[in-house]
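INFO batch 0412 | record 1 of 1 | parsing
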Amino acid sequence: MFLERRGIPTATVVTHAFDSYARGLARMQGMAALPIVVIPHPIAARPRDELREKVRKVHEELLAALSRPR
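INFO prediction complete | emitting tokens
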């Protein structure tokens, strides 16, 4: 949120277990439009290849969040 408030595009990545919490926090901070990209839970102690695949699936969404018009 710090960077977004300074005009630097960001993409917040959370697992679906934290999706509601992240969106609620963004709303409470007055940043309901904060880009939040959701990947499948869990990610802790998962093999590197599995994590890479989860991120590959949201690659386009991440790019869109980071290059959106300001």
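INFO post-check: Residues 16 and 40 are 6 Å apart (CA to CA).
INFO record closed
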